[in-house]
Each structure stands twice: as C-alpha cells, then as structure tokens.
Amino acid sequence: MEGQIINKVEKSGLIQIDMESWLDDREVVLYDISQNLFQGLVIREKDFRSFIKENDWSVYENKHVGIICSTDAIIPMWAYMLLVVAIESHATSVIVGNKQDVTERLLLQKINRLNGIDYLDAKLVVKGCSGITLSPSIYAELTRVLLPHVKSIMFGEPCSTVPVYKKRTGQRKS
After folding, report:
1. For 12-31, what is each residue's pLDDT tens digit?
2. What are the residue ranges spanned by the domains of the chain?
3. Nearest CA to 42 among 79, 97, 68, 67?
C-alpha cells in the first residue's frame, strides 16, 4: 500500500513506562508543623496533644499529606508520630516530607509492588519527559526491580532512546 503510514514504534513491541501515569489525581498537601511551635521554637507536649485532639483533621480526607517543618526547629519524633495518628484515618497517605518527597515515595511504593513476570523479556522504554521531576533514585530503583526480568531497558521516548541495558544471549532468566 503506497502512502500508508506505518507506526514502527508500535510494531517494535516496545513497552513504554510513564511513571507520571502511575500517580493518582489526589491532591498532595502539606502540613507545616511549625504552626504548632511555642514562641516559634519548641513543641510543648501538653499544648500539642490538645491541638491534635481538637483539630478537624477531615480537611485531609482523600489527600496525600506531607508533613514538613518550614523553620529551623528541632521537632521531637513523637510529634511526627502523633500527627500521623491524627491524619492517617482521613488521608490517602501520610509521609514526612515535601510534595516532591510524597510523590517519590508513592512512586517507590508502586515500583516495589511491580510484578516482574509482567515484564518478562520485555523491551522497555522508561519515559524521560514528563510533567514531574524525579530524582535519579526513582529511575535507579525502577531499573533495579525490572532488571532481572526484561530483555532491554531504554530511556527517553520511543523515537529517541538511550540504551541502558540489554540482556546478553544465554544470560539466565529470573
């Protein structure tokens, strides 16, 4: 057929992994523990426990919550723990860290739940361009988890990839 457009990428059998698509559309919000500091310096346990008990935590319903401290205060570990106890029953997830930390933690959880058999002998392209910026550790963990199962891993876009890994002939499968 003359003039027919052939999608060579589709015919290549490449599987594209777009980690951004693994994130749900729930809002990521931050709780700044600095609002609970006495004179901007310390957490007073009695006041903090009272706040925890009286605050309406339902505002975090179905959201991913990151707990941060925007000031240079020393926060006792039990304060973070109490916040998690208070928020957890409302939020989708509660993670100590900023929005980037929350996003990356959610992706790490997804990566570590992958079933390698689903990618057995696959030729993968890990999407490089997306609307979110991820640390190298996320890409490294994805590579580590899938490496024993795949035939090849490339980085970038299907039309322009950087080879990362190719299973050698005779290399043992997992």
Report:
1. 689 999 999 999 999 999 99
2. 8-23+103-166, 28-91
3. 79
Q: How far apart (Å, rounded) are the C-alpha atoms in residues 41 and 36? A: 9
| 31: number of Cβ within 10 Å | 20
How many alpha carbons fall within 13 Å on the CB side of residue 74? 0
**What's the pTM?**
0.82
Residue 56 in tokens: 């309406």
The DSSP-derived string for 5-46 is ---HHHHTTEEEE-GGGGS-SPPEEEEEGGGG-BTTTB--HH
Q: Indicate the SS3 state at residue 57.
A: helix
Please tell me the distance from the alpha carbon of residue 46 to that of residue 12, in angstroms, as a whole number: 63
Two tokens, residue 124: 């993968």
Among 172, 171, 130, 124, smallest CA distance to 146 is for 124
